[in-house]
Every structure is written in C-alpha cells, then in structure tokens.
Amino acid sequence: MSTRTAHTRADYVAAALAIIDEHGLAGLTTRSLGDRLGVHGTAVYRHFPNLDELVEAVLNEVIGRIADATEPADDTPRARLTAIMVATRRAFAEHPNIIVPFVSSRGMFPRGLEITNRVLTDLAAMGLSGRELAEALQMLESYLIGSIAFDYAGAPDHLEIRRVRRRMLAHEAFDPLTRSAEQIGELNEAAFALGCIALLDMCERLAAS
Amino acid sequence: MSTRTAHTRADYVAAALAIIDEHGLAGLTTRSLGDRLGVHGTAVYRHFPNLDELVEAVLNEVIGRIADATEPADDTPRARLTAIMVATRRAFAEHPNIIVPFVSSRGMFPRGLEITNRVLTDLAAMGLSGRELAEALQMLESYLIGSIAFDYAGAPDHLEIRRVRRRMLAHEAFDPLTRSAEQIGELNEAAFALGCIALLDMCERLAAS
DNA sequence: ACCTGAACACCGTTCAAGT
DNA sequence: ACCTGAACACCGTTCAAGT
After folding, report:
1. Gap between the Cα atoms of A120 and A129, Å rounded
2. Is the whole-model pTM more than 0.85?
3. Are residues B128 and B172 in the same domain?
4. What is the DSSP letter of B98?
5. Is A106 on the interface with B (CB under 8 A)?
6. To probe the interface with A, which of B50, B52, B142, B144 has the most A CB atoms within 10 Å?
C-alpha cells in the first residue's frame, strides 16, 4: 500500500538545476531529465509547457534563495544594496551554467522582480526619485549582470583560467598578476567591489543634486 | 566560360550575420545557411570546423568594424575610452541577437583582444599600472558587457518594450518614465553615460592614489 | 578546393493511450 | 492527475563520392 508519490514541479526544477550544474545547459534535455527522475522524457510536459519555462523556473528558484538569504537588515540603504549585489554575484558563482539564460531573462520572473523592487526601495531611501531613480537602477543592474557574466559565464574553471591567461598575456602588465586561479578570483572580487563603490558614489551624488 | 566563383569564409560570415539579424541565433542552422548561399547545408564544413566557430567569426567581424571605426584619436585617454565604450554598445544595438554568444565568448577572439589592448593602453596613459590597471579594465569591461546585455539582449523591440514596461509598472515611480520606446531608449542611454562617468572617475582616483 | 547526398545519433514536442 | 510509447519534424556532424 505504499503510495508511490508522483513528481512535483519542484522535483523537476531540482533535477534540472542539478543537470545544468553538472553537464551545462546543453546537457539538459527532456531525455536526460527523464532519466534522472526515473521517468519518461515526455513527462515534463505534464508540469511545464516547454523546456524554456522549466529553465525560467530554475532561475526563479536560484534567485529566490538569494532573496530569502538577504532578507532583513538594520543597516544603511547603501550597505543593503552592496549586500544584495554581493549575494547575487556569489549565487551565480555556484551556478555558472545558468548565467546565459539569466542574461536573456533579465530578471523578469517573480523572485527577480522582488529583488529589483527591493533595490528600488533602497535607492529611494538614499534620496533618489523619478528619472534619477530609474537611471541608478539601470546602472547597478547592468554592472551586476556584466560582472557576473564576465567573472563566471561560459566556461568551467580550468578552461576559464587558460582563456583569461591567454588574453592577459597579450599585455605585459598582466602576466605577474594572473599566475594562479586564486589570483584571478581575488582580482575579480576586488574589481567588483571597486565598481560597486564607484556606482554607489554616483548614486549618492545624484541624490544630493 | 564564366567561372562560377566559389564561396569564401567571408561569404559564410556575411550570410550567417544576416540570418542571425533576421531570425535570431536559433534561426542559424546548417540548412538555413546553405539555402541562403544556394549551397548544400553541409558545405559550411569546408570552411569552418563547426557552427560555433562560424559564430565566433561573426563576432570577430562585428567587433572588427568597431575597431576600424574608432581608430585614431587626438584626444585624452578618457575621451578615447568613452568613445570605444559608446561605439561598442552601439554596434550591438544593431545586432542584438549576437549578444548572447558574445557574452559567452568574453571577447576572446582577435579583434576583441585588439580592442582590449587599446583599452589597456589608454588606461595606462591615464596613469594606471599593475593591479590597479587590471581592476580598472575589469570594471569597465563588466559594465560594458552588462549594459549591452541589459539594454538589448534577448528580445525584438516590441517584445522588449512590453517586458520592460511590465517590470517598471511594478513600481509607481516608473510608470510616467517609460510610456514609450523612445523614453526607454533615452533612459538607457543616459544611464549608460552616467555609469561610464562613475567608473572613469574611479579610474582617475585610482591613478591619483 | 569546394560541394553533394545519404546517413547517423540526437533534439523538442505532440498525441493517443494507459493507470 | 501523472506517465508511457510511438511518432513527427528538425538538428549538427561525418563521410564517401563527385567535379
């Protein structure tokens, strides 16, 4: 009498994320998904209209975790904004294979919009409004997306290192800076922090004017 | 005796770019490419080892045009940097369907490296060196990629407007700002310029320290 | 040197059918 | 309500063969 529980949407999302993490976005197919869940490949269509919507649900899940993890903060708006940006970048460091569809989606799913609204609230608390508020949002979002894409998208670690080095080596100044993966990771981190400071400074300048 | 000239690599690149512009990246297949050139679908393999390399050649071509168009400048390093960033962003506005593979490639092709090296030269002329030079490059590149992706990637115009509006409407401040496509385009442009100023200011600060 | 034609192993998706 | 099985039109790529 043990009722074999049927799969839920959440099961498919979890399986899809695992496959994408392990084998890349191209590794996610209806058949690979079915295999992992012990189910026929076409069973996904009982839960999602197509694979693209599954991927969007995966994005929503990953971004949702950021939203939950950075919830409350008795801090300045600027500190909260920095925390959200750092947390988002970190989340994609763990799931680099999902960055390409994320860039295409531009955060247009429920939990993404939730974070966008939180950023807007913080920017408003910094004294921005109207057109300047919109411009500030755009600046921060562009930089965040670009940093994520630049730092993690498109390649497994060792490949990335090789590629980054190839580029760096073209200019003498880089050779001593990029000898190891750690150095590259550190440099990426520092550059990201610097950009956040520069852009948030600009936000404050806009608020003051 | 009219010798029918065979196709060259450049022919395939031009055809591929036209198809991508008209029908999106997914519209580019070996068969659609063959049809456009009046040739069998498998003929591409005489010129490129696979489709990914064709797409990389397309990226190289598009970026190469930017490199050629922004060549000389009797200007300050900062003005040259701004010009390169604006020109790159504009080039992708004309070829939005190519942004996703560009993000994955991270500029790792000949003409992309050429531009990267030019940026490095200008940053060095601003007084940056060593680790700060590397960080400055990373900041600018991330912001540029992100702005391009945020402003143009993933959707034809009318779709983009609908999506952007849907998001904007979630916050009261945006409704009056984003009534038309022109307003959105203007806002994107202004936000991009602002971010460039913020990041280049930071570069100067780094150079001065 | 460039292209054709047939073939291969794969895709996403549909739909009738099962429980 | 969820899943199976067969089928469809479509992929990228290989390879022997043509000129």
Report:
1. 9
2. yes
3. yes
4. G
5. yes
6. B142
